[in-house]
Hints:
Elements: H1 2-13, E1 16-19, E2 22-25, H2 37-59, H3 61-66, E3 70-73, E4 76-79, H4 85-93, E5 109-112, E6 115-120, E7 123-128, H5 151-168, H6 172-188, H7 193-206, H8 218-228
Antiparallel strand pairs: 1-2, 3-4, 5-6, 6-7
Helix pairs in contact: 5-6, 5-7, 7-8
Amino acid sequence: METIKSLLEYVIDNAFFQVGNKVFRQIIGIPMGSDPAPFIANLFLYTYENRFMFNLKKDDMSRAKNLRHVFRFIDDLIALNDNDEFMRSHKDIYPPEMELKVENEDNLSASFLDLALAIQEGIINTKLFDKRDAFNFSVVRMPFKCSNIPNKMFYSTIGAEVLRICRTTSHYNFFLVSARSLIVRMRNQGADTQGLQRVLNKMLNRHWKPFEKFGVSLEQIALDISSFA
């Protein structure tokens, strides 16, 4: 414990950054952007959560059980079927300087990490979510063919991304929307039709299993995706 405390003190107290010819030391918060920052944030939050749950399980097990489907990844948190327990308890869990932002507008839809979730007829439907899509300016994503990487690596990233879209999407129409957006982007970044069709067909033949959930034939999926290329 003393070693961890010593390491944390050193990292936090020696957070320096440079702007022009001036050097500044951060005195509030943790050094964001540094390698240990996510681990420090996670440890900070876990300390309060663990302490709260330890005491709650002794005092009120029914309330504690309401929080069993609350999940957090670094600073992104989702509460599933908790009867609004987290909304009632979060001020007792975290210190007053912690500001929590509610991003969902109702209890039937929300975004968590790279997923957009919506409950319809008792079933959670998912599709890809990227908050950068809402920006009013273009954001550089994925590699450019003219960059200093092999062509094979450039096209392989496209196949891998289409597979990721498939795995995170519950409906075929959702999949097609995200796949089309990706392929149009990659065409603008240098991909040609022949290369796209080759890598997409190769990916579909190797990883057909995840696509079976759509109930669409391999030939139809290949045809639909190829039409974007």
